[in-house]
Design the sequence.
């Protein structure tokens, strides 16, 4: 069945078919309508869950941590300053191996105050040990939220699904939605180690250097396995939906001389730029990143290592260095032929012609970026 | 009031000799029973409970970030409710730093929501785990490593702050009065909604007294009127133990943290106690 949904509605609708037991959240633009809709659905008895209306995002994540270690499927949503306030407890959730799912409406970071799209908020959380998925349209938002629960519970890692503020959170488009019973097949209740008075254990106790190192090494190695877990979930998801997702997608085909790389809604704009460039016989494709953590290194290497030039577009920035995705690509793949452009910060306009022109500048005039 | 013979907290934990916080856990768990889970933030009990593989509390413990005790406990309770395990006591167990200071916001949130948890603050009146720095629970004139001249502000009245949240149960308890201590924990266990228990815990290395004086310090804190024992039940203040009002010097002279007090300081403290009791007596008589 198809429904016309904005990105935020797609999140709430997806949560409503995932048997989430505990939700805890705090309002922030442009995420707020996610939790308002969830409150409505709980009130209408379409979601059977406890909703803890906390006094901050820090407590929202802390309450999710509590609910998750006690054995419940948990969800929260936030954005920008809220995600940054959670930073400490994001590490706690992943270190405690809790399968929490979080939707982040990507929004710029103050000062100055700005509520519009930018991905620096979630990209600056890439080292918190969370799986990160970036959606580019409402269908992906809906599908990624459902897949996120499956990945989280099989991998025992929290998963963050990111959607650009307003560009995606508040833009409506038709979305194929799923029946509760269908989603159940993908999300069986998996038994895991949770608080139980019959088994009095301590969780997260003092770890001396040797133990700590073993724990953290294990966390990293397990995180790498998420790539396979994602593929398995994706295959199962395809069986029930006919829609398939890879950690990285390529458009229109892998074979090309040049590549443009982007994530989130910026990849949709870049796709139009690729279409236009190809019309002018420029042999360029789009590499769209769906998953940034764990870093799909092998897949990206296969797609990018033979290119003459790779141009990465970022709606985010690491001050004093470059766009964050550019840094990930160049550093993560040990490539020297990567040029990065930063644009669209704080919701600033960025069009397919901006992208195409910047690409041509890089290709023809050896312009090295940084700002569009 | 019978105190359970069941020793839930295990011996040989990592506490300092004479630790009041260790005794507090032993007594509290005797009243709470084994159907309990604890949330412990950064505090002395992070260490006392032992490293990976150990759990001296004897009931499940979730170690959590400093300021998150109440919010994590709320999340655990919500989950247990969904799973039909509502009978499990969910207890936040935090020091004064984690309660009066960094955890106050989350505590206020959980209290305002009236979440069905028991929040226990074991208060040794400074950041003892990091080596004796002032907290907002440190009393007037007490010396700490960050107040070498003695603290220049009074102890925050946390009981009053909690009372302003209109929660069903708030109580103060002392290790020197184990019957009263037990009775209040059992009462907290029987009430639905948010419960707060404030324990004054003497700390030999932090408050600077000999390790065999823990109970004496606890007892004198009550007898001098420094630490009043009372309950606030649905907003009604109930006195648990009228002090003898032993002169405060008896309490101060045991503790090195007060060694530099002048006669003027001591007189100031006498008057503060008097004022505190005038304030409380008005409420006890309401």
Sequence:
């Amino acid at each position: 069945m198809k429904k016309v949904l904005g990105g935020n509605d797609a999140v709430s609708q997806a949560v409503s078919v995932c048997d989430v037991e505990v939700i805890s959240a705090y309002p922030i633009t442009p995420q707020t309508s996610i939790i308002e809709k969830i409150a409505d659905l709980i009130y209408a008895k379409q979601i059977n869950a406890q909703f803890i209306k906390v006094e901050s995002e820090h407590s929202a994540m802390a309450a999710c941590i509590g609910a998750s270690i006690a054995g419940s499927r948990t969800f929260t949503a936030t954005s920008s300053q809220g995600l940054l306030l959670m930073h400490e407890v994001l590490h706690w959730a992943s270190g405690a191996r809790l399968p929490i799912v979080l939707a982040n409406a990507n929004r710029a970071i103050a000062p100055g105050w700005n509520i519009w799209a930018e991905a620096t908020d979630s990209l600056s959380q890439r080292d918190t040990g969370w799986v990160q998925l970036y959606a580019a349209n409402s269908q992906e938002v809906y599908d990624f939220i459902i897949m996120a629960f499956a990945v989280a519970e099989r991998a025992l890692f929290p998963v963050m699904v990111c959607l650009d503020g307003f560009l995606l959170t508040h833009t409506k488009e038709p979305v194929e939605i799923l029946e509760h019973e269908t989603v159940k097949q993908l999300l069986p209740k998996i038994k895991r180690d949770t608080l139980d008075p019959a088994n009095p254990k301590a969780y997260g106790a003092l770890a001396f250097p040797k133990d700590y190192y073993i724990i953290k090494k294990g966390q990293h190695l397990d995180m790498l396995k998420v790539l396979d877990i994602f593929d398995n979930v994706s295959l199962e998801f395809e069986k029930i939906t006919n829609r398939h997702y890879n950690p990285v997608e390529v458009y229109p085909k892998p074979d090309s001389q040049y590549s443009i790389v982007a994530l989130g809604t910026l990849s949709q704009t870049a796709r139009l730029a690729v279409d236009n460039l190809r019309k002018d016989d420029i042999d360029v494709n789009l590499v769209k990143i769906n998953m940034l953590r764990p870093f799909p290194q092998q897949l990206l290497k296969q797609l990018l290592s033979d290119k003459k030039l790779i141009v990465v577009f970022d709606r985010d920035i690491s001050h004093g260095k470059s766009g964050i995705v550019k840094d990930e690509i160049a550093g993560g793949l040990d490539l020297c032929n990567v040029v990065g452009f930063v644009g669209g910060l704080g919701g600033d306009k960025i069009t397919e012609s901006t992208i195409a022109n910047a690409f041509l500048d890089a290709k023809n005039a050896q312009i090295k970026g940084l700002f569009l | 009031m019978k105190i359970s013979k069941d020793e839930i907290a295990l011996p040989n934990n990592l506490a300092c000799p004479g630790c009041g916080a260790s005794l507090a856990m032993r007594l509290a768990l005797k009243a709470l029973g084994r159907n309990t889970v604890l949330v412990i933030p950064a505090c002395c009990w992070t260490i006392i409970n032992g490293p990976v593989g150990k759990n001296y509390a004897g009931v499940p413990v979730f170690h959590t970030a400093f300021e998150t005790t109440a919010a994590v406990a709320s999340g655990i309770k919500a989950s247990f409710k969904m799973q039909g395990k509502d009978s499990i006591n969910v207890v936040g167990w935090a020091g004064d730093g984690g309660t009066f200071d960094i955890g106050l916001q989350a505590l206020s949130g959980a209290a305002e929501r009236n979440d069905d948890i028991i929040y226990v603050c074991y208060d040794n009146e400074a950041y003892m785990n990091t080596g004796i720095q002032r907290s907002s629970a440190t009393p007037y004139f007490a010396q700490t490593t960050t107040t070498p001249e003695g603290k220049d502000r009074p102890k925050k009245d946390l009981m009053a702050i909690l009372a302003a949240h209109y929660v069903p149960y708030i109580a103060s308890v002392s290790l020197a009065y184990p019957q009263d201590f037990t009775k209040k924990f059992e009462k907290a266990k029987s009430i639905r909604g948010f419960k707060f228990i404030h324990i004054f815990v003497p700390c030999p290395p932090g408050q600077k007294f000999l390790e065999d004086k823990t109970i004496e310090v606890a007892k004198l804190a009550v007898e001098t009127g420094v630490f009043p024992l009372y309950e606030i039940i649905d907003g009604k203040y109930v006195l648990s133990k009228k002090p003898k009002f032993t002169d405060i010097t008896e309490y101060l002279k045991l503790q090195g943290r007060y060694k530099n007090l002048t006669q003027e300081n001591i007189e100031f403290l006498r008057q503060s106690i008097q004022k505190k009791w005038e304030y409380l007596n008005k409420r006890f008589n309401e």
